[in-house]
Amino acid sequence: MSEPLLEVKDLRVRFHTEDGVVHAVDGISYSIEKGKTLGIVGESGSGKSVSSLTTLGLTRRFRASIDGQILFGGRDLVSMPEDQLRKIRGNDIAMIFQDPLSSLHPFYKVGKQLMEAVLIHRPVGRAAAHARAVELLELVGIPDPKTRVNQFPHEFSGGMRQRVMIAMALANEPKLLIADEPTTALDVTVQAQILALLQDLQQRLGMAIIIITHDLGVVAEISDDIAVMYAGRIVERADTESIFTRPQHPYTWGLLKSIPLLTSPRDEELVPIAGRPPSLINRPSGCFFHPRCPYVREEHKRVDPRLAPVPDSPGHSVACLLSPGVRTQIWQGLEAGRQPEELRHEYVEAPAVPAGAGVAAPGVAASGAGVASSGAAVTGVATTEVTTTDGADAGQEDES
Ligand code: ADP
Ligand code: MG
Fold first, then answer.
1. Which of 76, 91, 162, 380 is deepest in the core (most CB within 10 A)?
2. Ligand nearest to the CA of 42
3. Are 87 and 121 in contact (CB under 8 A)?
């Protein structure tokens, strides 16, 4: 394993607003190696953009408190002076944003904007910059680039504009490309084309990519690793295969069940996650996900789980208070098409088993792997009776 290209260590970003302190990013750590792709996934408002904007120093201008480290080539971007960071931004690290229109100036020809992107960081003449602009449009698959380079952004379709944005980000052959919801504004067909383009460019240029999305389906094909964010924290992290085959967090299960059908191998119904993301000013007590978790226990409203390694799944970590055995059983149940209420009843509300008895509910044996460890796992956790089923009570404040 080579040393990481980017290493984020215990990053915290807080905004001081009239309503209070927004804990937008609350102690996240991740790293990405050269040429690899990391997917950062979570619902709107979970801190995905803020963490990436902070990498580029773009949250400094708000009244933000920023703690932790973001190491890039061994240098800390959090504490780096603005003039040095400016040399990295758009050069070694480039970013593409969700809405291409907000990043492309409507009054200037696409070619001129591409040339600017080149000229900021390269001491080349205008002719060379123009040639590079044409080359970049070609690179991102825009037909007839010599004509297109002289057109305005409004003359491009949504998908083509996003290609222009990608071209702009690639102007200086970045080592790291951060793509923030690059396909959200696009229809599914164009979305697939853009993802294929990113993958192809990565292979040709060897850059690392951080792709941010609310849709796990988007990152399934393209990511090596996935970090799932909830309420400013990473709640689960693993290689992509583990996230899809043995996800551990109830929130990840929810995301998996809400993947649009096109990217889902099975003919399953889309199930949105019930409830709303919590306020980041007044966060829930205990586990931040407890007000929405179908498997909440009384103690989960008090205890704040930390990211911890998942047994028998190297490089995989999760912040969940359910025991590994219970999680395995519930996920297997969900995979088999069973309903959360039923699984909750069976595995979470099950009466306390006397220590050492190893008596699991009947029917458990039918679920196959993981049975051996389940009895011990169940007894290892306090099985407090939980009466509320929706759990959508404590500590949730709407932000709006
Ligand atoms: P995501 O990209 O996951 O949708 P963001 O990272 O944009 O979420 O936002 C995380 C939280 O930080 C949200 O609650 C958002 O309202 C808040 N936030 C973002 N930027 C600012 C800012 N400049 N000032 C105050 N709060 C902010
Ligand atoms: Mg965002």
1. 162
2. 1
3. yes
